[in-house]
Design brief:
heterodimer, A: Ubiquitin-like (UB roll), DNA polymerase, domain 1, 2 domains, five-stranded mixed beta sheet, globular, B: Aldehyde Oxidoreductase, domain 4, 3 domains, 18 helices, disordered C terminus
C-alpha cells in the first residue's frame, strides 16, 4: 500500500498494514514527534494531519491511512528548513513549556487555521479543546495561534 | 494578550516546536529489552506466593524480577525507607508492584505480565485517615509502630485567651481531594549497563540526584557507580521524583541482571495507578475575630492522608503548618498537623506542596468572617495581613525583604476593577438564571525549602578558548525553562551575548548534588549560584587584565561582550584567548548557600524560610441557577516575582499555575473506590481544557529580593495556590452558598452533604 508522509510518497509493505499507526511512524519512520500520552484519543498528543484535517491517531492502524496524505510535526517546516510562522509564533509567545503536547497542538492549530484564518479567541479555544496542555493554561498558545492567523490570511 | 512583551527565549524551543526534542521514550539503544510492571488486584493483603514460572516461559521473556532479585535494599525512601521497590510479604496499596517482566518487546512483556500468579490473603484495608488515628486501629506498617507518619505543631500566645477575646468564633470542617499531576509524559526510563561498570540512567525525572539515590540503593553499589543523565521531560509539577526513581531503579536492576539496555515505558493507567498524588486534607478550623475584624485566635487540626508510604509527607505537611494562618498576623495559634498512613495511593510532592489545601481553608474562612461581621472582604484582609516588619505565626520578623502583600492585593483591585465587579455580585439574591460573582484570595509563601532541608546549589561556568561558554547548575529542566533562565541570568550578569552560551547536558557525574528542583527554588537557588559564579569569573578575568595589561580594574564594567576598564577596552573573546595562552583557565565554580533558617519542632517557632513571596488572584464567573454549571469569565494574578529572568516564561508559570488551580477548585479528583483508583486515564480524570479556562491576565511585580543573588523569587508554586479559594469565594458571592469541599460541585437544588 501507499501513503504520503510529509510530502513524500512511500510504499508500505503489506506486512505493516495491521500495525498501530503511531508505532509505525515512531519506530519505522523515526517520526518521534508523534507522542503517546493516553492511547485513548483523550489528550491529542498523537494528533497529526490526515488530508489536512487533524486526527488523534493513537487508536488507528496503518491500513486506515492507505492513499492518504499525512503531515507530522517533522513536516511543518518550510521546504528551505526555516520554521513555519505558526511554529515561530509558538516560540515567540512562550507557548510551550515541557513541549510534550506541542507537536499535536501545533498541528491541530495548523489544520484549524487552514479552514479559518480570521478566528476569534473563542473559536481557537474550541479548536484546541481536544488537546491537553498541563503546563501553559493555554493562554500563550491562544496568543500564538491568534497572532499566526495573520499569515494564513496572506 | 501580551503582545508588548519581549519574545520568549528558550534553548530547547526549536527542538520542541519541530518535534526533534528526543524524550526518553524516543530514544533507542541497540539490543534494548523492554520491561513492564505487574500489579495485584489487592489493596491490602498478605502475600503467600508469587509464581513467575508461566511468565518466564512466555514468548520473548528474558527474565522476571521480584524482590528476591534485589542485591541492595528493597526498601527505600526520601525520609523513611518504607517504599517497597517490589512487594515482599505484603501489599500496602493497589499500586504495589509484585514483579517486573523483561522481554524482547514491550508487547511480549505485557502479555507475560498477565501470567504472573499471585496468591495472597486480603487484609481489611484502612482507607480513612481519621480512623487510622484511632488507638485500636491496626497498623499499616507494623515496623513504624504507629499510623502517624509525622506530627507538626505551632504553639503561639494563649489560645484560650484568644477565643475569650473574640466577638465572633467560626468553626468549620474542610475536605480536599487526591489530585493527579497529569504530566503529559508518563514515567519512562532507560538503563544502560556501561563498559566502565557504571549504570547509565535516562528517565523522565525532575531530580536526577534523587533518582541516583534510589537506583544506587537497589543496585547496592556506590553513588559514583550510577550516572543519571538529564533528558527532555514532559512535565513534572512535583510528581516526577519518588515514583520515577523507583521505576528507574527496577529498570536498572533489569539492565544489570540481563547485561542489556532496558527500557520501561509506562502506560497512562499504570502511571495514575502507581504514582503519588497531592494529599487530601481534612482540616478542622476554628477562628476567633473581634467585632471589628481583627483575628484573635486560630485553632486547627490538619489531617493529611499520606497513603501507603511516607514519601515527603513530613515536608509537605510542614509547609501547611507554617502557613496554616495564611498571610495574616495572628497572636494566638494552636495548630496540630498529622501525616497519616493508609492503604490509599501514595501522596507526596505536588506543585504548591501543602499550601493549596491551607489557602482554600484560610481564604474561605476570612470571607465567611467578613460576611458575618459585615466588613468588606478586602478590608478584613487589610486589617490582618502581614506588612513590613510584621511577625509571622512562627515568630519570624519580615524585615529582610520587601513585604509586598498589600501591593499585590492593590494591583489586582486596580487591574481587575475589583470593587465595581464586587458590587455587581448576585449574592444569591438575583432572579437571573446566571448568577454573577467575583472572588479573590491572597497568600504569602516561604521561599525555597525552608527548614525542610539543606538548601544550596552550585554552578560551573567553563569559558572555552573561543569565548563560547558552557554553563551548568544543579537545577533541572522540568519543562519550565530553567536552563534558559540560567543562560539569561549568565548573559545579563556577565554582559555577554546569549548566543555564545550553551547549557551543558546535565548529569549526576558532572556537578555536585544541588537538591531537588522543587519548592519553586530553581531560579532562586540555581540563578543565585550563577550570579555568584559570574562574580568569581569577573574577578578572575579582571585580575588577569590587570596583571597582563596593567589596567586598573577596580571598576571594570562587563558589557556588550567587552570589558571596560576606565579608558581601556578589551574584547571578551580576546581576553579569554589570551588567558588560555597564558595558562589561566576561565573556569569557575559558584555556590549559593541559602541563608540560615531555624525551626523548633516543640513549639513550631522559628525563622522558617529565608524570604517570602506574596501574591493575589481573582476570578469572575457565573453560576447557572438550574444546572449549577460554573462559567469562568476572567481571571487575574499578581505575584511578586522578585526579578523575572524570562518574562514570557514567567508569565507561563502564572497562567499554568492558575489553570492547575482552577482544575483543583472545580474539576480534578482522583476517584477511589475501596482503595482502587477508578479514573486512570484522561477520559475520566477531568483536566482543564482550553474551553474550560477563562482569559487570564498576569501581572509580574518585581521587588528584587536581597536574599536572592539574582533578585528572583520562586513563582511556580505561588501561582498554583490561590485559584481554588478565589473560585470558592466567587461562587459564594454569586450564589450565597459556601462550599467546604474540593472540587466544588455547585448544587443549588437542595442541601449537600459537606462532610462526606
Amino acid at each position: 500500500m501507499k501513503m504520503t508522509v510529509n510530502r513524500k510518497l512511500i510504499e508500505v509493505p503489506d506486512s505493516m498494514k495491521e500495525r498501530k499507526l503511531v508505532e509505525f511512524l515512531r519506530e519505522e519512520l523515526d517520526l518521534t514527534g508523534v507522542k503517546n500520552a493516553c492511547e485513548m484519543k483523550s489528550c491529542g498528543a498523537c494528533a497529526v494531519l490526515v488530508n489536512n484535517k487533524s486526527f488523534r491517531i493513537c487508536n488507528a492502524f496503518v491500513k486506515d491511512v492507505e492513499n492518504c496524505e499525512l503531515l507530522t510535526i517533522e513536516g511543518m517546516e518550510n521546504e528551505d528548513g526555516t520554521l513555519h510562522p505558526l511554529q515561530q509564533a509558538f516560540i515567540d509567545f512562550g507557548a510551550m513549556q515541557c513541549g510534550f503536547c506541542t507537536p499535536g497542538m501545533v498541528l491541530t492549530a495548523h489544520a484549524f487555521l487552514l479552514g479559518n484564518n480570521e478566528p476569534t479567541r473563542e473559536q481557537i479555544r474550541k479548536a484546541l479543546q481536544s488537546n491537553i496542555c498541563r503546563c501553559t493554561g493555554y493562554q500563550q498558545i491562544i496568543d500564538a495561534v491568534e497572532a499566526a492567523s495573520a499569515f494564513y490570511r496572506k | 494578550m501580551k503582545k508588548d512583551n519581549p519574545k520568549a527565549w528558550r534553548n530547547d524551543a526549536y527542538a520542541k516546536v519541530t518535534g526533534r526534542a528526543r524524550y526518553t521514550d524516543d530514544v533507542k539503544f541497540p539490543f534494548m529489552l523492554h520491561a513492564v510492571p505487574v500489579y495485584s488486584d489487592f489493596v491490602s493483603a498478605e502475600i503467600v506466593s508469587i509464581d513467575t514460572s508461566d511468565a518466564e516461559k512466555s514468548e520473548g521473556v528474558v527474565k522476571v524480577l521480584t524482590h528476591k532479585d534485589v542485591p541492595g535494599t528493597n526498601r527505600f525512601g526520601q525520609i523513611i525507607n518504607d517504599f517497597r521497590i517490589f512487594a515482599e510479604d505484603r501489599i500496602f496499596y493497589n499500586g504495589d508492584v509484585i514483579a517486573f517482566v523483561v522481554a524482547d518487546t514491550r508487547a511480549n512483556a505485557v502479555k507475560a505480565a498477565g501470567l504472573v500468579k499471585l496468591e495472597a490473603k486480603a487484609i481489611p484495608s484502612i482507607l480513612d485517615p481519621e480512623k487510622a488515628l484511632e488507638p485500636d486501629c491496626p497498623l499499616v506498617h507494623e515496623e513504624h509502630g504507629s499510623n502517624i507518619i509525622n506530627e507538626h505543631r505551632v504553639r503561639r500566645g494563649n489560645i484560650e485567651d484568644g477565643f475569650k477575646n473574640s466577638g465572633l468564633i467560626l468553626e468549620e470542617v474542610f475536605q480536599t481531594q487526591f489530585v493527579e499531576h497529569a504530566y503529559m509524559e508518563p514515567e519512562v526510563a532507560i538503563c544502560n549497563p556501561r563498559h566502565d561498570g557504571v549504570m547509565e540512567v535516562y528517565a523522565s525525572m525532575q531530580h536526577p540526584f534523587s533518582t541516583r539515590r534510589f537506583v544506587n540503593a537497589v543496585l547496592g553499589g556506590r553513588l559514583a557507580d550510577v550516572e543519571v543523565i538529564s533528558t527532555p521531560m514532559g512535565g513534572g509539577f512535583g510528581g516526577k521524583d519518588d515514583t520515577i526513581s523507583i521505576v528507574a531503579a527496577r529498570t536498572a536492576l533489569a539492565a544489570k541482571l540481563t547485561g542489556k539496555p532496558v527500557k520501561c515505558s509506562y502506560a497512562r493507567e499504570w502511571s495514575i495507578r502507581e504514582s503519588y498524588k497531592r494529599h487530601p486534607y481534612r482540616i478542622y478550623y476554628k477562628m476567633g475575630f473581634t467585632k471589628d475584624g481583627k483575628i484573635k485566635a486560630v485553632k486547627t487540626k490538619i489531617i493529611a492522608d499520606g497513603g501507603a508510604y511516607c514519601s515527603v509527607t513530613p515536608w509537605v505537611t510542614w509547609r501547611s503548618t507554617v502557613q496554616c494562618c495564611g498571610p495574616y498576623q495572628v497572636e494566638n495559634v494552636h495548630c496540630d498537623t498529622y501525616g497519616v498512613y493508609t492503604n490509599n495511593v501514595v501522596t507526596g510532592a505536588m506543585r504548591g506542596f501543602g499550601s493549596p489545601q491551607m489557602n482554600f481553608v484560610v481564604e474561605s474562612m476570612i470571607d465567611i468572617a467578613a460576611s458575618k461581621l459585615g466588613i468588606n472582604p478586602i478590608e478584613i484582609r487589610k486589617i490582618n495581613m502581614v506588612r513590613q516588619g510584621s511577625i509571622t505565626i512562627t515568630g519570624q520578623k519580615l524585615d529582610n525583604h520587601k513585604v509586598a502583600m498589600e501591593e499585590t492585593l492593590n494591583t489586582v483591585l486596580d487591574e481587575f476593577d475589583y470593587e465595581s465587579k464586587f458590587k455587581k455580585c448576585s449574592f444569591g439574591k438575583s432572579d437571573a438564571d446566571e448568577l454573577y460573582g467575583v472572588g479573590l484570595a491572597i497568600s504569602y509563601r516561604g521561599m525555597s525549602l525552608g527548614a525542610e532541608g539543606t538548601d544550596f546549589n552550585s554552578a560551573i561556568i567553563n569559558v572555552q578558548p573561543d569565548g563560547s561558554i558552557l554553563l551548568e547548575t544543579g537545577i533541572h529542566e522540568n519543562g519550565q525553562g530553567s536552563e534558559s533562565a540560567m543562560c539569561l541570568i549568565l548573559a545579563r550578569e556577565l554582559g555577554v551575548s546569549l548566543d555564545r552560551i550553551r547549557y551543558r547536558r546535565p548529569s549526576t557525574s558532572n556537578i555536585p548534588d544541588g537538591g531537588t528542583t522543587v519548592a519553586s527554588r530553581g531560579t532562586v537557588m540555581g540563578g543565585g549560584a550563577v550570579v555568584l559564579a559570574v562574580k568569581k569569573l569577573k574577578e578572575k578575568i579582571a585580575e588577569f587584565i590587570n596583571k597582563r595589561h596593567g589596567s586598573a580594574v577596580g571598576n571594570a564594567v562587563f558589557k556588550d561582550d567587552e570589558i571596560i576598564c576606565g579608558k581601556d577596552k578589551y574584547k571578551f573573546d580576546d581576553v579569554i584567548s589570551s588567558m588560555y595562552r597564558n595558562q589561566e583557565y576561565p573556569h569557575v565554580f559558584g555556590v549559593f548557600r541559602g541563608p540560615k533558617v531555624t525551626w523548633n519542632e516543640e513549639n513550631g517557632q522559628g525563622d522558617a524560610y529565608f524570604s517570602w513571596t506574596y501574591g493575589c488572584q481573582a476570578i469572575e464567573l457565573t453560576v447557572n441557577r438550574k444546572s449549577g454549571k460554573v462559567k469562568l469569565l476572567n481571571a487575574i494574578a499578581a505575584h511578586d516575582a522578585g526579578k523575572a529572568a524570562n518574562v514570557q516564561m514567567t508569565l507561563g508559570q502564572f497562567y499554568g499555575g492558575m489553570a492547575m488551580g482552577i482544575g483543583y477548585g472545580l474539576h480534578e479528583e482522583v476517584k477511589m473506590k475501596d482503595g482502587v483508583i477508578t479514573n486512570t486515564n484522561f477520559n475520566s480524570y477531568r483536566l482543564p481544557r482550553s474551553t474550560d479556562l477563562p482569559e487570564m491576565k498576569a501581572v509580574i511585580i518585581e521587588n528584587p529580593d536581597p536574599n536572592s543573588p539574582s533578585g528572583a523569587k520562586g513563582i511556580g508554586e505561588p501561582t498554583n495556590e490561590l485559584m481554588a479559594p478565589a473560585i470558592a469565594n466567587a461562587i459564594f458571592n454569586a450564589t450565597g452558598k459556601r462550599y467546604f469541599k474540593l472540587p466544588i460541585k455547585v448544587d443549588l437544588s437542595g442541601e449537600e452533604d459537606l462532610n462526606q
